[in-house]
Every structure is written in C-alpha cells, then in structure tokens.
Amino acid sequence: MKxxxxxxxxxxxxxxxxxxxxxLSKSEAINLALEQNFGIKVAENTVEIADNNQGxxxxxxxxxxxxxxxxxxAEDNNTIEFPGQVDENGNxxxxxxxxxxxxxxxxxxLNLNYTLFDGLGRTYNYKRLKEQYQLTELQxxxxxxxxxxxxxxxxxxxxRLSENEFAQKEALEVSKDRIKRAEYSFEYGQNTQxxxxxxxxxxxxxxxxxLNTKQLLENTKRDLNVVLNQDMSIDYAVDTLIxxxxxxxxxxxxxxxxxxxxxxxxxxxxxxxxxxxxxxSKSGYLPVIGLTGSYGWNLNQNPASAFFPGTINxxxxxxxxxxxxxxxxxxxxxxxxVRNAKILYENQELxxxxxxxxxxxxxxxxxxxxxxxxxIYEIQEKAVITNQNNFERSRxxxxxxxxxxIEFRQAQINLLTAQTTKNLAKYDAKLAELQLLDLTGQLLNxxx
Length: 448
Known about the structure:
Number of domains: 2
Number of strands: 6
Radius of gyration: 42 Å
Shape: elongated
Strand content: 15-25%
Oligomer: single chain
Order of helices and strands: HEHHEEHHEHHHEEHH
Largest sheet: 4 strands, antiparallel
CATH topology of the largest domain: Outer membrane efflux proteins (OEP)
C-alpha cells in the first residue's frame, strides 16, 4: 500500500511539472532546426566555400601582379699598396687608405604575368566549378532533408508518447476508481478483500507503466532538443494532430521523381563535372600563350676608389614581352589523363543508371509501405471504437455486478492496447509518408 501511495505522489509531481509546457508546432520546430542545427550550419558553410571557389578570383582568368623591392648597404675600409712603384721623384709610391667607403643599392620593380590562352583549360575549369557549386548545394539540401526527417521522426515520437501518456493516465484513473468501488463494496459486504487487493495491484501496474512512459517521453524530448540545438531543460508540448497528404498529390510527386530526387540530381551533376574533366585534360594538347610586363627602378651609390671618383647610377626600365609554350610531347601524361577522365565519365553514366533503378525500387517500396500503413491505421481506428464501446458496456456490467473485476480489467487492457496500437499505426503511417517525400525530393516543399 505504501508503494502505491508513493507512486501516486510521483505521478502528481510529474503532472504539475509538465503543466507549464509550451506548445511547439511542427513548423516552429522546423524553423528552429534550420536556424540552429549544427549539421545544417556546417552544410551552409560548405556551400559558401563552394560559392567562393566558383568566383572569378579562383579561375586563373585574372593577371598576376607582383612587386619586388630590395636595399643593401656596405661599408669598406681599404688599404691599397703599390709594391715596386715609384712616384715622379723616384720615391716609393705611398699606400692609399680609403676608410668608411659606403656602397648603397636600392631597387624596386613591378612584374606582370597574364595567360592569354591555355588551351581553354581555365574556361572548362570555371564551368566545372559552377557544376561543383550546384552539386554542393544539392548535398547541403540532402543534409537539410535528412535533418528535417530526423527532426520530424523524433517530433512524432514525442507526440506518440504524449498520446500514450494521456491514454495511460485515463486507464490509471479508471483503476483508482475501481479501488474506491471495491473498498465501498467490501465495507458493505458485497465482495471480498481479494477484489480490493486486485484493484490495488492494477493501480500499481498502471502507475509503473505510466512512469516508464513519462521517462521515455522525457528522454525523447531531450533528443528533440539536441536536433534543435536547445538547452536540455527546455520542455515542449507537441502538436498531436496529423494530416495526411491526398493520394493524388503523392502520386504526382512520384511521377516527377526523376526531376527532384536528390540522388539522381547529384549523379547528373557529377556526370557534368566528369565531362568538363575530359575537356580540361584535353587542354594539355594545346599551347599556352602569355604576356609579361615589368617596370623597375634601381639606384646604386658607389664610393670613390683609388682610381675613380664616386658614382651614382639611377636607372629606370620598362619591358613588355610575349611567350608561347607548347608541349609537343609530354611523355604521354596528357593522353593518360584524357583516357582516365573518359573512363570516369563512363563509370558515372553506369552509376546514374544504377541510382535511377535503385530509386525506382525504393519509391515503389515506400509507396506500398505507405499505403499498407494507412490501411492498418484505418483498421486500428475502428478497433479503438469497438474496444471503447466494449469497455463502456463492461463498465456498466461491472458496476451492476454482472461481470467480475477480472473481466472488467481485461476490457480495460484491451482498450488501452487498442489506443496505443492506433497511436503507433498513425505515426508509422506519417513516417512512411515522410520517407516517401524524402525520396521524391519534396520534403522541404510540404507544409506540416
């Protein structure tokens, strides 16, 4: 009996703690994930890098301008001897000493290099970078879709557990009411102490089931906060209303799968990239023509020597030139690169056909799964109505003393099982729909 009381107290505390939950709609959850999720932020940064790579600054079309400057300083102390030499008077020629002789040199230049033609390699590489950017966008979109699919899967799991919790609370209230009735009946001699004990056992079992469901619900809410990049202490109530997309719209999405499926679109971008790789490799057969230009300034200050006075040389120069480089034979490297690029292109074509076949299979499987789960959900809805009617009838019969507490308990269990099974079927059907939308590439284009 003490354990039963403690369980009731714990449940009351949990109910009060959850009373202040704020409602988090599906659209609000999606917006939070798009703004806060770490994986989506990384994907967006990757797209930004690809955008930088496709810019004119990364194509080689612009010239290269470099500046060079230099300065040097030297100080010398020299003694010059003239052995065997005499002056005009016949005396030995004296040594000449030059101290603190300073030499200064300054220079600066601007050098320009510009490739006029490189066999169209830059042009095709530029187009290749454009395709790479589109591929990165598709990969980011795939990351976003996967994250939203994960988010909604967790969101609907929270909704399912919330509905299960509500159903189990109702079952617990019914079991509590049974205790009161069993105690009253026992006091008036209409049943035995065994009926009271059975009712208490059922309350204990229902309380434990409810506590376990609450714990699982709290864990799942923390999973939701991880995807949303929110503090673990934030508590949400979620929307349990489910709307299914009409089958005609689903079929239209399936018919357009080749235009929107991300796996197919990515293989097409990779195919275009491989095609440009072939053209870039072929550019090695053609010459490279470039322009060069240079403007320079030099200043040299030389000290006086024994024979010459000091000099200052100030020089400015300007030059322009053109050059042509043509690898008439590079040992076969270009030929090998072209052959390998063509093989990679053929592999990508084969991969595209394989992906298209796999997507067709996955779409058909997902569509049949969706239809099957919808049918199961409809059956379970009817089962809940049947078990609800059976439970209400059994409760009336139990209160009139026409059936035993065991029979009434069985009707109660059947109703609870039908409710939780219906909840599972409902969200299973919705998850099947989400997976189908993901395959058709329409997950981000649907309002939830």
